[in-house]
Amino acid sequence: MPTHPLPTTVVGSYPQPEWLVDRAMLSKSVPRTRMHAMWRLPAEHLQEAQDDATIVAIRDMERAGIDIVTDGEIRRESYSNRFATALDGIDADNPAIITARTGNTQTPVPRVVGPVKRKGPVELPDMQFLRKNTDRAAKITLPGPFTMSQQAKNEFYEDDEELAMALAAAVNAEARDLEKAGADVIQLDEPWVRNNPELAKRYAVKAINRALEGLTVTTVVHLCFGYAAVVPGSNKPAGYSFLAELDDTIADQISIEAAQPKLDLGVLKDLSSKTIMLGVLDLGNPEIETVPVVADRIRNGLKHVSAERLVVAPDCGMKYMPRHVAFGKLKAMCDAAATVRSEIG
After folding, report:
1. How far apart are CA 209 and CA 147, in angstroms?
2. CA atoms of 252 and 276, how far apart (whole Å)
3. pLDDT value at 232 more than 70
4. Which biological process annotations from GO are given for this protein (predicted)?
5. Neighbours of 236 (CB within 10 A)
6. SS3 readout for 156-174
7. Which of 156, 197, 233, 285 is spaced 20 to 30 A from 170 at the CA atom?
8. Model-level pTM?
9. pLDDT digits (tens, 9 = 90+) for 87-114
10. What is the layout of strands, in order, in the sheet containing 106-118?
11. How far apart are CA 259 and CA 297, in angstroms?
12. 96 secondary structure, DSSP code
């Protein structure tokens, strides 16, 4: 793990190459069930192609100067569907159709038809591949139990809390294997705590803590307002409706996006026990920010959080960007972090 202040990382994803995925299909939704048609290669060549694309993503992050790299989530169709649909008790082949909270989108989701249990490792080979191909600190992400419980149709458990706790146990079993495989950081993606804050207040912290139970590596909970490619900035709220509550989790870090929504960072006072992973790249803007612009965003974060408690990152949803733009933004971010680091000594 980096020992200098203001270490840099990514939220998780990085652009998948055009030769690997149908990016036009990818851009239309964030799938909850599997989207095998997204992949351009036949099954017999897919793993090798994903390996090659993963190495490209890792090397891009290293060239940009990222301190804590990921595998770019290259093997995933979305941040959550690959893990969620690999569990016992989940029927992803015969999905339910639900109406999105906006009321105008019909979304296929997995059905929970029996006891949810982890059959075996899902992301373990991804972590092993990442560890073999970088000597930098390595992070891997998992979908959070609360979010997965909201992205499925519960047809088995008495209530959604019982489902979330079963999912938390499955996530925890996976996370423990990822830790053994050399993960330095394990992150849970929990965007739906903002979508449904009243339900989240009932049991999200309990489920998150169960998912992170017993881990000794650095742990993160990530929140967002929706991918810039799918949710325009004009439709984003001005603040998080479920944030202060995360101070009660056992996670070491809380990850938020702040650049595109122009978040008032005064809210960070409610997370006094946590390190903050701060989004400083606006992924809704196709232009590559200049180093001074990103440096100012980092300095703004330092008005509310000490340098020892600040990790520098982009906003989320980098997979939807053109690769050259994503790389340029990461390079500007790393150079900006170095600039501010030199200022604070």
Report:
1. 14
2. 9
3. no
4. methionine biosynthetic process; methylation
5. 18
6. CCCCHHHHHHHHHHHHHHH
7. 197
8. 0.95
9. 999 999 999 998 765 556 788 999 999 9
10. 87-99, 106-118, 153-154
11. 8
12. E
Cα atoms found within 13 Å of the Cα of residue 211, Cβ hemisphere only: 33
Token duo for residue 231: 């949710």
Asked if the model's pLDDT at residue 13 lies above 80, the reply is: yes
Average pLDDT over residues 27-33: 88
- Is residue 11 a part of any domain in this protein? no
Radius of gyration over every alpha carbon of the chain, rounded to an integer in angstroms: 19
Give the whole-angstrom CA distance, residue 305 versus residue 63: 28
| Alpha carbons 324 and 268: distance in angstroms, whole number | 32
Q: What CATH number does the domain containing 43 carry?
A: 3.20.20.210
Alpha-carbon span 227 to 233, nearest angstrom: 9
**126 lies in a domain?**
yes
Number of domains in the chain: 1
7 is written with which tokens?
Answer: 């270490």
Mean pLDDT for the chain? 94
For 29-51, give the DSSP string: ---SS--GGGB-S-HHHHHHHHH
Structure tokens at 33: 């069930």
The answer to whether 79 and 141 are in contact (CB under 8 A) is yes
Contact between 301 and 293 under an 8 Å Cβ cutoff? The reply is: no
- Residue 5, in any domain of the structure: no
How far apart are the C-alpha atoms of 281 and 315, rounded to whole Å?
6
- Please tell me the distance from the alpha carbon of residue 7 to that of residue 301, in angstroms, as a whole number: 13
Q: Which domain holds residue 69?
A: 23-344
User: Which residue in this structure is represented by tokens 């139970």?
Assistant: 213
Cα 7 to Cα 36: distance, rounded to the nearest angstrom: 36
